[in-house]
Specification:
Layout lengths: L1 E4 L5 H13 L3 E6 L4 E6 L7 H5 L4 E5 L19 E3 L2 E3 L5 E5 L6 H14 L3 E3 L17 H14 L3 E4 L14 E4 L7 H7 L6 E4 L6 H13 L5 E5 L17 H8 L4 E3 L1 H5 L2 H14 L3 E5 L17 H18 L9
Parallel strand pairs: 7-8, 7-14, 8-9, 9-10, 10-11, 11-12, 12-13
Antiparallel strand pairs: 1-3, 1-4, 2-3, 5-6
Helix pairs in contact: 3-4, 3-10, 5-6, 9-10
This protein binds phosphoenolpyruvate and manganese (II) ion.
Phosphoenolpyruvate binds next to loops.
Length: 341
Amino acid sequence: MVVILKRNAEHEKVNALMRQFEDLGLKTNLVEGTETNIIGLIGDTSKVDEQMVLANSVVESVRRVSEPYKAANRKFHADDTVVDIHGAKIGGGNFGVMSGPCSVESEEQIIEVAQRVKAAGANFLRGGAFKPRTSPYSFQGLKAEGIELLLAAKKATGLPIVTEIMDIRHLDLFSDVDVIQVGARNMQNFEMLKQLGHCNKPILLKRGLANTIEEFLMSAEYIMAGGNTNIILCERGIRTFETYTRNTLDISAVPVIKHLSHLPIIIDPSHAAGIPWLVEPLAKAAVAVGADGLMIEVHNCPAKALSDGAQSLTPDQFDGVMQSVKHLLDVEGKKILPANC
Ligand code: PEP
Ligand code: MN
């Protein structure tokens, strides 16, 4: 990190600022130029509060030369992280397919969809029990009962289950859930992220609707700072000026995140597009660009779905998508490993 000092900054105040940095365990290097003086900071600057430094009267500006995230940074962890959920792995050449309805609606529905997505090649069952809805009058999910039904579907099919947490006070209900999803709207619920950092479950962290890649990785860092390193990132489209699609899939986020971080990243083409026929081309793009998996919404009767029916695939449509995806995975030499649960 480089701190650019104001012209005519008083020496005493500059010295006091340098001591402040040294107290944080950093080495300081004052460079006096003809026009500008700067302080170079050497060491782990991730704990330096930029806003606090900027508030100092001798500081003109601050530039970071290294990323503010450490645990998630590939610079300190060259190998891909592989998240292993009862043998179903994600990352490092292993591809995860999480499919199922937006919301769990009944035992019959979730078991039927689970059987169909498993037969098509998915290795995880997704389904929302607690639903983040824009309107308080929309279906909010079956909550605890939804998790029970997911567990029944897991028992019937052997698929590990992925479901969203909306409130950390519900964590006890997730004790038998295999992957806890943090949805786009909670990506920056920092108190929740901190608590999830202390649990030993894999976390599927979705990118916020309007968050930068750096903010996304900082949210992963929150979880990792608590000790939980089993994180799967999910790009699910971001808000742009485009209105044709529900969101805009930021496909470049995949190679950028792979460059910056060792964490696996999957793509959710369903929420990105909001249109069923776009799921297949975007899923193929996901494989081509190096994603570690997919999350796809599948409903046995999309027209009657209690949430996100308009973007859900029928099981038959999902079969077709999986055929193209599996073909591309073969070309890439990537595998979908089934879980053993
Ligand atoms: C979901 O997966 O159903 C969901 C609500 O996703 P997101 O948080 O990406 O909107
Ligand atoms: Mn949904």
